[in-house]
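Case 480 in the screening queue. Each case pairs one protein sequence with one candidate compound; here the compound is nicotinamide-adenine-dinucleotide. For every case the pipeline is the same: read the inputs, emit a complex structure as tokens, and attach any notable structural observations.

Predict complex for case 480.
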Amino acid sequence: MAEQDSKTQEPSFRESVDIMFNRAVKLMDLSPGLEEKIRVCNATYVVRFGVRLRGAIHTFTGYRAVHSEHMEPVKGGIRYALAVHQDEVEALAALMTYKCALVDAPYGGSKGGLCINPRDWDEHELEQITRRFAYELIKRDMINPAQNVPAPDMGTGEREMAWIADQYKRMNTTDINGAACVTGKPLNAGGIAGRTEATGRGVQYALREFFRHPQDAAKAGLEGTLEGKRIIVQGLGNVGYHAAKFLSEEDGAKITGIIEHDGSLYDEKGLDVEDVRAHIVANGGVSGYAGAKHDPQGATLLEHECDILIPAALEGVINMTNAERIKAPLIIEAANGPTTAGADEILRKKGCVIIPDMYANAGGVTVSYFEWVKNLSHIRFGRMQRRAEEARHQLIVEELERLDDMLEHRWSMTPNFKEKYLRGADELELVRSGLDDTMRTAYQQMAQVWRERDDVEDLRTAAYLVSIRKVADSYRAKGL
Ligand code: NAD
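Case 480 output:
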């Protein structure tokens, strides 16, 4: 990447975030002091720790950046990847600040990372490494239900979150709110239904909302619904897999291309997402998949014709070297920072519409927020209301049945109505409803600015304007 950066004058991820932030604040009337306060990353903690593994001591480097504490706790995932470094973590922490503000999740922004390739270590070793990293962060209150609450990100999932929560509880045995120190935990360790799918589900809800506004879709030269739309997805991990699965199974979209770390698959008739995922889980990648054309040069598929491109893997994949050749009229950034600032400008000039990362992948933090609230209230969502709701619905159904009898069955309920209406919402339904509402509301706030202001060309700038305004209001309310 460094070599490429020098050839193309490509801004780094961190610089890209700053460029995009600066473009937005130019359109605002913030005082220079406040602007600077919001932009800078408050603090970054770097830790190097040793773990004895395979008969030797291995030293690992980890980070936890806190971008903004206008609200506490601060929130953001922990990433495991060899490319993790301070600039990346700080850029991701900044995005978390804006993302949380945009979707009204009451947090400041943070992010963490560990320089490690999780594939190099077995499960037991990963547990030792994770617990030790967590220990280092917990003892400095950089994991704490009231101060800093991590979540999964690239290379981590509910398994790592369960280890972190357990480590916190071992070190804080009397903290009754201990489970709220981290989100994205498995259901049996204080998690919430629907968290694992949440980011991909949020991408689906975001696209549905986009297509509910034909005037917005028209800006990308698209019309109709998601039905039949051709989609290329990069990264079939947690986020990409769930997005691709829901969009193909529930909205009738066609996943024509999948790009993974070892190449791409393409089938214009549409790929079977479950089948490809099963192959990746079994073989570690898409190589050898018999059901579609495999190209070892995966990234070139980003440039292929499609209606929607979903980068859901790494940052900087759409950059100044390929932006001109990208044909997708609509890009939804499921990953964080997949488009560099340079590429963003090229694509904007070409008329490509980008649904920006800070909105597109906010489903994860939204459901993390629900999980945190669940942990603090110590009760599953719906537990008190569900049966009461069912009992009230039962009353209505009985009245309708009585009417039906009185009218000598000249009128009757449609099949399935009774079954569907009688069922009270469980936690998963409530979580999806809260997520859907969040994604719709945030889209509308962002899109309103995009439509109404002549000086706002794109959704990303609109998203920054909405979120920076909210962060600025919080700082002002604090007297800063
Ligand atoms: P993940 O580790 O589950 O999946 C990443 C996938 O990308 C893997 O399948 C990996 O093999 C693939 N990949 C790696 N290098 C690639 C390459 N060069 N080309 C194509 N594919 C490649 O991670 P995830 O949790 O799905 O996160 C993906 C992105 O979404 C990241 O940018 C992350 O910050 C962002 N995100 C994740 C969440 C979440 O809840 N997990 C929330 C918000 C944003």
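Case 480 observations:
- Confidence is low (pLDDT under 50) at residues 1-6.
- The domain at 44-189 is CATH 3.40.50.10860 (Rossmann fold).
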